[in-house]
């Protein structure tokens, strides 16, 4: 049986934030929410990029092909973010979650990365269809945190996977069968992070979509409203041609943020020949003709000085920016904290060793060995120190696990292999994130594997 969607979308700043970094989109064939992050580094731009690319690629696709289509959308969005960062280094650090689905009348092609969520209300029972890619969710999966503790954990905004222009972006992809009467909710953590699932279920039972959205956003604001709130709500109803032709809705920063064009750098054409008009005679011709070489030196010197000033200003800007950043990497085989940015500029190292720990990188789970090898960016020294302590716990556990293996006859410990991946965090006053790291072998499907 084929169904249609009746949908509504809403996005607002909330009570604390100065701008909206969320975006949302709803159409007869696509529903999604994107929660941008990066503060001054343009989280609103990141979510707008992902959402508008998805909107432009919205189409009637069926079955498993929807998953390929959605994966292509995320890959395109991630590439566009990388291009924008390479064009403007001040955008480095921006990223966005993406929680959305295509709809073919029978199934949803659910696509998810980050901590925005999709809920399903079916026969009065609420279920969360997505699994947060967050630090606290991982701790909950390990049994180290309860849901109540996770709600107030200082790193509850730390995200393990996100679209940010880096490689190895790996979304969760799943086909979900729908039923008549299902209600779908896509939301940013400005909603799910402030009100409980029981409250969400209660408000979703409202018959009217607009009323349900009003109740949800009001409850989130009354709970503090400290983040942007974006809600996309849809009911699965009997097939209706009018609903199938309904006008799509775009909300949030995607309606406000202008997306810069990605500038290409074509080869510079030769300058056109100077056209001489009738007035260009006598002394005028001399003014437009090339001057003797000896007369050109002042201009050459001035041009050279201008180039040096630009390079000097750019270098100073990068150096000043780098001194405000911290990241975790390897130093002589141990986990260490660096102040600055990885790499160098014009022969000048952009980082210094701030602290060296006694944690051997080889003691970490393979997942985190790769993360440290590729550097883990943090917003400040305190955040870096806290992350190092988390790594210490994981290393100590793995040392014990590997020692136990050595004591078992016939069991050998595999040698870790390095492969590039990345982690990054944003500023402390807005959601932070760790970039995507996905195990490359089935034996490493558990990031805690030792």
Structural class: alpha+beta
Poorly predicted regions are 265-297, 411-445
In total, the number of domains comes to 2
Mean pLDDT value: 81
- What summary fits the major beta sheet? 7 strands, antiparallel
CATH architecture of the largest domain: 4-Layer Sandwich
Number of helices: 12
Could you give the order of the helices and strands?
Answer: EEEHHEEEEEHHEEHHHEHEHHEEEHEH
Biased composition (Polar residues): 409-430
Protein name: Serine/threonine-protein phosphatase
Organism: Tessaracoccus antarcticus
Keywords: Membrane, Transmembrane, Transmembrane helix
Overview of the structural elements:
The protein has twelve helices and 16 strands. It folds into two domains: 3-255, PPM-type phosphatase domain (Phosphatase 2c, domain 1), CATH 3.60.40; 326-444, no CATH class. It is an alpha+beta fold and 450 residues long. Strands 2, 3, 4, 5, 6, 9 and 12 form a seven-stranded antiparallel beta sheet that branches. The chain has a five-stranded antiparallel beta sheet with strand order 1-11-10-7-8. Strands 15-14-13-16 form a four-stranded antiparallel beta sheet. Helix 1 (43-56) packs antiparallel against helix 2 (65-87) and helix 6 runs antiparallel to helix 7. Helices cover 33% and strands 24% of the residues. The longest helix has 30 residues, at 293-322. The model is unreliable at 265-297 and 411-445 (pLDDT under 50).
């Amino acid at each position: 049986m084929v169904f249609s969607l009746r949908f509504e979308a809403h996005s607002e700043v909330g009570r604390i934030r100065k701008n909206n970094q969320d975006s949302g989109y709803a159409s007869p064939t696509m529903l999604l929410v994107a929660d941008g992050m990066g503060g001054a580094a343009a989280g609103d731009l990141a979510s707008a990029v992902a959402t508008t690319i998805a909107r432009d690629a919205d189409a009637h696709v069926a079955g498993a092909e929807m998953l390929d289509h959605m994966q292509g959308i995320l890959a395109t969005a991630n590439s566009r973010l990388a291009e924008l960062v390479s064009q403007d280094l001040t955008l480095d650090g921006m990223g966005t979650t993406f929680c959305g689905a295509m709809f073919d009348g029978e199934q949803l092609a659910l696509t998810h990365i980050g901590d925005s969520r999709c809920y399903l209300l079916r026969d009065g029972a609420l279920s969360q269809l997505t699994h947060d890619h967050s630090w606290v969710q991982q701790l909950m999966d390990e049994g180290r945190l309860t849901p109540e503790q996770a709600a107030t954990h200082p790193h509850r905004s730390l995200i393990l996977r996100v679209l940010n222009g880096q490689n190895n972006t790996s979304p969760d992809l799943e086909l979900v069968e729908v039923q008549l009467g299902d209600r779908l909710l896509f939301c940013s953590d400005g909603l799910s992070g402030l009100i409980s699932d029981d409250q969400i279920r209660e408000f979703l039972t409202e018959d009217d979509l607009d009323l349900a959205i009003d109740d949800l956003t009001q409850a989130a604001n009354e709970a503090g409203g400290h983040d942007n709130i974006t809600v996309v709500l849809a009911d699965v109803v009997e097939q209706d041609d009018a609903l199938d032709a309904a006008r799509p809705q775009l909300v949030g920063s995607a309606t406000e943020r202008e997306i810069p064009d990605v500038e290409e750098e074509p080869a510079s054409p030769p300058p056109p020949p100077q056209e001489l008009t009738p007035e260009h005679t006598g002394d005028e011709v001399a003014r437009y003709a090339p001057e003797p070489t000896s007369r050109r030196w002042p201009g050459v010197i001035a041009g050279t000085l201008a180039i040096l000033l630009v390079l000097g200003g750019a270098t100073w800007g990068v150096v000043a920016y780098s001194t405000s950043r911290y990241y975790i990497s390897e130093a002589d085989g141990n986990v260490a904290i660096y102040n600055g940015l990885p790499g160098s500029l014009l022969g000048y190292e952009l980082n210094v060793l701030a602290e060296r720990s006694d944690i051997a990188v080889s003691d970490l789970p393979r997942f985190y060995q790769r993360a440290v090898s590729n550097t883990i960016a943090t917003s400040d020294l305190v955040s870096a120190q806290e992350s190092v302590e988390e790594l210490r716990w994981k290393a100590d556990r793995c040392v014990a696990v590997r020692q136990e293996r050595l004591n078992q006859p016939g069991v050998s410990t595999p040698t870790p292999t390095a492969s590039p991946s990345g982690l990054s965090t944003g500023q402390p006053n807005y959601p932070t994130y760790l970039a995507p790291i996905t195990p490359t072998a089935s034996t490493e499907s558990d990031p805690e594997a030792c």
